[in-house]
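Researcher: Quick one. two chains, 292 residues in total.
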Amino acid sequence: MPMTQEEVFAKVKEVLTTALAVDDDEVTSQAKLSEDLGAESIDYLDIQFQLEKSFSIKIPKGELTPENLFTNPEYVQNGRMTPKGLAELKTRMPFADLTGFEADPDINKFRDVFTVDTLVKYVMTKVNT
Amino acid sequence: MKFVLVDQLVSLEPGKRIVMAKNVSMAEEYLADHFPGFPVLPGVMMLEAAIQAAAWLVRVESNFAHSLVVLKEARGVRYGTFVAPGNTLVITAEAVEIAAGRSDFKIKGAVNGNNAIQARIELAHVNLAATDPAMQPIDRNVITALKERWQTILQHSPVTLPA
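Model:
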């Protein structure tokens, strides 16, 4: 069922205000789920589940939050993602803005990749196929 | 595995404040999935460590009157730095109020002085016998076990409490 980005953003906002107990006006497009909205790893599970329900989509394991990237020594060295790893990340997360992470690929900062906009763009790929 | 999430008693001001430490070890089973290749203490475990620290303060204050001291509500939970194997998470729980059946705490957790978690928590203090008198022996056994655990914690603590 095709949706505009505004429609998707409005629904993603609803999911996040409920899941993270934050105010409406805190959920901006650029807000980082962890740093700005206080999301913890258990919240990511809840958010995924709520997005599936809200948009009637299925989010396969590893599609929104990529797996098996950090365990590969070709992708991560000394706590930083290698160029090969970044290339792989781009193919796994075409919906994400990775420019910030590319500038400083410290894996401790990886969760900053997940902004509200990341979720909106991801959902757009699922509802508009 | 048993989720005993506080290892050491650092300091205790009866009825007011407790500081406990949790050492994070590579051996903790949940780290294998959280996350593969990037083990960090789950935020909910940090919260549980804080609840356990606050609960000990309640038990000492109430002289182990209850078998269960559990989380009723957590508010304003904010996370900061990651806590990794080899780090020590130092939890400070300050009592806002400790009443007979409930208590309210401000908690903070830090790694090398860097904030890892902060929250406001409300605990409920209960005995199973309150709803079912037949459960009194279970309350008694749990309380005995908790007193023993507390003695173990005191063994290696710089804190000495009046008997």
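Residues 81 and 114 of chain B are 7 Å apart (CA to CA).
Researcher: Thanks, that's what I needed.
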